[in-house]
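Provenance

Sequences were taken from public entries as deposited. Structures were produced by running a predictor on each sequence independently, with no templates supplied. The record for GOST seven transmembrane domain-containing protein from Chenopodium quinoa is shown for reference.
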Amino acid sequence: MEEREFPVKLKLGFFLGLTFFFFNSIQKVEASIHDYRNEKFIPQSNAFFFHGGSEGLYASKVSDHSSSSSEKSSKGRFESVTFTRTKESAEKQNEWQQYTSTVEAIIVEVKDRERIGGTYLKTDAICCNQTLASEGHCKIGEVIMQPNPEKREWPKRIKVFFEGKNDKALMDFQSVDINSTGMYYLYFMYCDPTLKGTTISGRTLWKNPDGYLPGKMTPLMKFYGFMSLAYLLLGLAWLLRFVQFWKDIIQLHYHITAVIALGMLEMALWYFDYSNLNATGVRPMGVTLWAVTFTAVKKTLSRLLLLVVSMGYGVVKPTLGAITSKVMFFGGIYFLGSEALELYEHLGNINDFIGKTKLVLVLPVVFMDTCFILWIFSSLSNTLEKLQLRRSLAKLELYRKFTNSLAIFVVLSIAWIGYELYFNATDPLGELWRIAWIIPAFWALLAYSLLVVICILWAPSRNPTRYAYLEESGDDLDEEGVSLTSSGVKVAADMASMIERKERKVSGSTDHVFVGVREELEEDKRE
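Predicted structure for GOST seven transmembrane domain-containing protein:
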């Protein structure tokens, strides 16, 4: 017994420790930030570069209200960006020389990416060499760049210089205005081979005209507001039905109510979280923590609701019996895994550096979702078989509708996963960032739609016996009376005729006995 429990406790301890780690590694989150912590440059052709991040940005807006005009600017800001070269590289320089080496920060719109490097000159070089410099195409020691004829100042180049033998170069605190909507990439590059081993630290911050939310997340704020209203309307409709038939409420209805309430709170918290981040640039950590937790709880309870409904809880069986502990344990593990993933996605800085950590957290959740789907359909198959054997036709029809609906949702989920993979594969540079919000939005809509289907199928009514569990004999009789009225009348008539025939037989035999006794008495008197 102890040997079996040890792996279970070990897994539970791992997920608890992982969740605790993320709670303790929470940092203050401000807008769309790209953090650099002593990152190294990568050699490419005859240059060294570091990808500083990418961001979808809307163009700055200028509004004119009668006599006064105001501008909502879109910009990128460099904060405490520092380059550190090796001691050996610094010692080789002339201390009397003002500028000894250069690092360039280059901001380019993704559609102009071919203007960086010597592609347009039919060369693989990224940095200008003696030949290209002599032809007048560029300056030696700088990154080759072809200006955009429509916007001569773009791509944007910002130079940072090392002075004398200093091993650090600090980039001035400055911002870059964005006047054209698009996906922008930031690169840090240097051409001097003596700078090999240089690292970068600091951060960049990006802001859109309407606030601090990243461009691809801005539509989600309105979407969460819409979903909050949708859950509110569903909750009101369910509450009216709940109050109207409160005497016929079964345990399953309370579970559905809890999922609706959690969904309403989840969407409202996310809307408030996004709204506050967009307005102030600072995420309200308490609200974000609650939103993340409510999301994990709702996802877990939604899956458990589907599972227990598929098992026939409250319909075929009054309780789950011995399997209750397994269901609860699996739900607890799923909650911890989902909570850890949500914490990683929403409580770290908002940037595009995913890394391997997210993959480690995503895989267990995907595996458990797959287990949930297999378990749900296996349970549905068993429940349908039991209802067919019991000839509970009303309940059988209800579960067939539920199975068909669930199958449609699973097919839609698989199709959307395929589309999501296709979307990411065909858009590696993020050029479709303005429609990327529909991917998470679809999953929220799908979960809401499935909840609506369950609310319709299991809505409170005056006749809860069509899906409520009763004792086996009473349950069958009730369903026959509800679903097969005409057959019931025929059965009752047949039973009445059988009883009448039996009564006739009994009365006939009784009369025969009495006649025989009377004849015997008369014979005795004669004698």
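The longest strand covers residues 47-57.
The chain is about 55% helix and 15% strand.
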